[in-house]
């Protein structure tokens, strides 16, 4: 080797020692080192023989004992320790740590070896490095913390990372925090750990909207249940939107699965000072009908009126809008629903019969749409007149924006000394026609 230029480099900057180390040629690497080859001469990527030789433990030890820099930085500011994690070389990984390689060095992207182990989802190396971590608040160039990475990758150490000081409430940006990351990468155990210490953060949408719109449908029930069981419900109800939740339940194959949860949510929604919207009451009626505790709660509360076309498709409009006479509802709303939405109109069949002439284009009315046309029974007429008379007599009307007449009407019915069947008819709990 005396006549060989042992440190000569190829066009990419590779030396004979670097090539021997990369390909696992121990004897050749040893001879090159004995001949005086530079163990720290890097190629154009700033990779030293130790960077490329980490897949071969015997060569790694040879290079270290020959003076290789343990924390040499390549073009990404990554040390050989990073390479052992990337290549899943546990033996050389442990060897470098034993020789005191720096376990907290930052790469160009702000990633530490512990972060690299989390991203690589190497749980063995994660557990090794956990004891070496000095800063659990470290952030990548994109702002992702150690905890954020642990949530979005396979990592069994989330609870331990929090116990050692990681901040559950650190936001990367308004819509990216530990909460939203738990939705994007669902995991019940991780969410349970995160939520118990989570505090309200202002986001572009309410937390419940994030849950029902981002989270996989299969996890929504369990996530909300975890929130209730934790006792930490303040963040959820700080800016709770009831309608997105109800629309989600409505879209499920079996909404009754959510019945008890919906009841609890409405209780809490009202306890936190929120006021029901007319569209929300209509949605509750569509989900569970009138003969439920959920609907009774809604009808005994103030309701904020906001125009929503969907409110014209349900009987709930008659229940909460005491300013609307039954005759108006039958003449203007039912024909409109009958013309455009037969399925919704079928829900009126047990309660109403309308004049065929009220329909805008009666000659277009298909035979299957004539089920609501007919002469009202005396029972229906009596119910309609009695309901309108009570409201007019005692002035159970509402303001332009807030509906409170319905709760007065239903409280009055409860106090009337009449048979229960009569109360049920006047409150539309009891149909007057057989379907």
Automatic annotation (TrEMBL):
PROSITE patterns the UniProt entry points to: ANK_REP_REGION, ANK_REPEAT
Keywords: ANK repeat, Repeat
Keyword Repeat: yes
Residue stretches of each ANK repeat: 12-44
Domain of life of the organism encoding this protein: Eukaryota
Pfam families tied to this protein: Ank_2 (PF12796)
PANTHER family, per the entry: ANKYRIN REPEAT AND PROTEIN KINASE DOMAIN-CONTAINING PROTEIN, ANKYRIN REPEAT-CONTAINING PROTEIN-RELATED
Protein name: Uncharacterized protein LOC115879608 isoform X2
Native organism taxonomy: Eukaryota, Metazoa, Ecdysozoa, Arthropoda, Hexapoda
């Amino acid at each position: 080797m005396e006549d060989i230029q042992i440190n000569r480099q190829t066009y990419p900057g590779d030396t004979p020692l670097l090539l021997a180390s990369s390909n696992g040629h121990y004897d050749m690497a040893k001879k090159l080192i004995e001949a005086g080859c530079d163990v720290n001469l890097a190629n154009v990527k700033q990779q030293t023989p130790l960077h490329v030789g980490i897949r071969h433990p015997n060569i790694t030890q040879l290079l270290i004992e020959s003076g290789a820099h343990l924390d040499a930085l390549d073009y990404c500011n990554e040390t050989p320790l990073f390479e052992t994690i990337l290549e899943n070389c546990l033996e050389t990984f442990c060897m470098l740590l034993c020789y005191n390689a720096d376990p907290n060095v930052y790469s160009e992207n702000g990633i530490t070896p512990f972060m690299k182990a989390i991203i690589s989802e190497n749980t063995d190396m994660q557990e090794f490095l956990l004891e070496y971590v000095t800063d659990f608040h470290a952030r990548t160039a994109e702002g992702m913390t150690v905890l954020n990475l642990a949530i979005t990758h396979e990592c069994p150490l989330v609870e331990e990372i929090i116990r050692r000081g990681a901040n559950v409430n650190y936001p990367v940006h308004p819509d990216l925090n530990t909460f939203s990351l738990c939705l994007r990468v669902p995991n019940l155990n991780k969410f349970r750990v995160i939520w118990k210490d989570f505090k309200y953060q202002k986001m572009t949408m309410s937390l419940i909207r994030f849950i029902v719109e981002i989270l996989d449908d299969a996890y929504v029930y369990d996530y909300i249940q975890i929130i209730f069981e934790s006792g930490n419900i303040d963040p959820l109800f700080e800016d709770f939107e009831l309608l997105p939740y109800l629309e989600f339940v409505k879209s499920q194959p079996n909404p009754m699965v959510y019945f008890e949860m919906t009841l609890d949510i409405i209780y809490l929604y009202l306890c936190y000072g929120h006021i029901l919207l007319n569209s929300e009451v209509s949605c509750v009626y569509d989900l569970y009908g009138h003969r439920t505790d959920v609907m009774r709660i809604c009808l005994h509360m103030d309701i904020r009126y906001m125009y929503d076309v969907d409110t014209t498709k349900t009987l709930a409009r008659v229940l909460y809008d005491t300013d609307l006479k039954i005759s108006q509802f039958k003449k203007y709303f039912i024909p409109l629903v009958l013309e455009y939405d037969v399925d919704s109109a079928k829900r009126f069949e047990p309660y109403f019969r309308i004049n065929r002439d009220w329909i805008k284009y009666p000659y277009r009315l298909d035979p299957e749409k004539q089920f609501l046309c007919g002469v009202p029974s005396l029972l229906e007429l009596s119910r309609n007149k009695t309901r309108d008379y009570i409201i007019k007599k005692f002035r159970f009307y509402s303001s332009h924006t807030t509906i409170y007449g319905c709760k007065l009407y239903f409280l009055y019915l409860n106090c009337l000394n009449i048979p229960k069947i009569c109360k049920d008819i006047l409150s539309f709990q009891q149909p007057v026609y057989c379907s």
